[in-house]
Amino acid sequence: MISARTGFSVGLARTCEASCAKMEGPMAQFLSEQPLLLLFLVLGLGYPLGRLRLFGTRLGVGAVLFVGLAFGALGPEVAAPEVLVQLGLVLFIYTLGLSSAPAFFASLRRSWLPNVLVLGVIALVGFGLLVLSRTHLLDRDAAVGLFAGALTNTPAMAAALDLGATSRTPVAYAIAYPMGILAPIVVLSIWGRKRGTAQAVGVISRALRIERLDAPTTIAEFQQRHGLRIVFGRIVHGGTTRVAGADSLLQSGDSCTVVGLPDAVARAESLLGSEVELPDAQSDLALRRLLVSSRAIAGRTLRELALPSRHNVIVTRISRGDIEWPATGDSVLLLGDRILVLGAPQDQETVAQEVGDSVRQLHELDVLALGVGLALGLLLGQVPVPLPQGTFKLGLAGGPLIAALLLGHVHRTGNIVWNLSFGANRTLRQFGLVLFLAGVGTRSGHTFWATLGTAEGPRLLAIGAGASLVSAMALVWGLRLVRLLPGYADGMVAGGHTQPAVLGFAVERHGNEDPNVGYSMVFPIATIAKVLLAQLLVLFG
């Protein structure tokens, strides 16, 4: 006897098949002969569809996959060329690795406890699906697809396909994906905390009167003694204002400006003295924002550039995308960064010529660095990795990801700058992702609708929803035990699920940038863990 739920699914599939049957023939034949037209139709319809709000959230680029599945339902021959799917995959993975490298290596040093928790939850979901696969309650490829879909991670699905998973993997992925978005949002709405995040993360500047130092000390000595991540801008001594340097003296009666995050600035105020106002008319020093567009500068630290000693200016802030932080000697300048420079106008002009400050120059893509980096990643993906039961390869997903993380960490080799500008990286990453999703959707659409109409469809949906709920609840309660600020914790839930839609919900919920910080702390290692676990599920499932 067929259950009501199964009957509904069968009816839905039959309705879809009947509708598609009317369109098959001329339409299917035409689209199969025009693969580029098919591809851009899917992109043109799917991307705006993903911008529409549904129950307070958006599908995002995931909508491209579902539009691709709809077109693929016309017939197995209606499919994008495989080489375009592979191109989209390697572009997406490589640019993702480049942009994630700084946060990934920083999180290994500083945020190990939340990352361990995220890894444990991901491993728990993977182990549960492995058990279902090994006990034959699920076939291997469906288990891998549910793992990637429930945790909304396209690179994991891509890695599995590259390692030999069948078309059932993207089918299961597409079935589980919507619940991978909704489950964390529901869990955060019910069990997430709103209070305790009154302080937003952002760089501030404050002028201080030096009153609490027992003896004169240099800025370098002060920084080393207290370990504060702040930047000193101006020093006012005897009515004269000058740019602060590492050797500048801090002494009682003088004034200075400090730049940093609110906690660090408040700590500096408690150590130095009370807040004062410094009229701009006291000196000819000014602030100017410059754009880093010179490849000779990109990938170098501020300490290497030695701007205070060479040009009598100091960089106080660095902006990359929508994120801004105080500049320190260890800060690495990348193409597209905007730096806030304090100094005399003539000195600022000299620095502007050195860093480039050219939008046109910035938009010229370094094809040499991109091509060599991708080639290295593809070669790495073909290297056999020994396992207790044979070998496996990192493939089109793992190879470029590992190569991009390493190259993004070293920044440059000789005259080759590996990092792309922020804008170029985002554009290539977005294009690669939608290209991949459109291709996978069209190539899996026929199988997807056939599977959804069987008794197995609702079962896959239920298992995917259960995996998403378990993951979200474990992260919420685990991060609560770690005693993080709620905004950070919600961002880490979104990062653990590698889901921008959940991050957007968290940002709107808290009204500040805390979730973005938490997201960036765990996103890189969560992505890598899912890619590797998806490959292990293919090998051992």
Written account of the structure:
The strands form six sheets. A four-stranded antiparallel β-sheet has the order 3-8-5-6, covered by helices on one side. A four-stranded antiparallel β-sheet has the order 9-12-10-11, covered by helices on one side. A two-stranded antiparallel ribbon has the order 1-2. It contains 22 helices and 16 strands. Residues 1-23 and 196-200 have low confidence and may be disordered. 62% of the residues lie in helices and 12% in strands. The protein is an alpha+beta fold and 541 residues long. It folds into two domains: 4-196 and 389-540, no CATH class; 204-361, Regulator of K+ conductance, C-terminal domain (Alpha-Beta Plaits, 2-Layer Sandwich).
Secondary structure layout plus pairing:
Layout: H1 4-23, H2 26-33, H3 35-51, E1 53-54, E2 57-58, H4 62-72, H5 82-110, H6 112-134, H7 140-150, H8 154-162, H9 168-191, E3 204-209, E4 217-218, H10 219-226, E5 230-237, E6 240-243, E7 249-250, E8 255-260, H11 262-272, E9 286-291, H12 302-305, H13 307-311, E10 314-320, E11 323-326, E12 338-343, H14 345-355, H15 359-362, H16 367-381, E13 384-387, E14 390-393, H17 395-410, E15 412-413, E16 416-417, H18 422-452, H19 456-482, H20 486-496, H21 500-510, H22 514-540
Antiparallel strand pairs: 1-2, 3-8, 4-7, 5-6, 5-8, 9-12, 10-11, 10-12, 13-14, 15-16
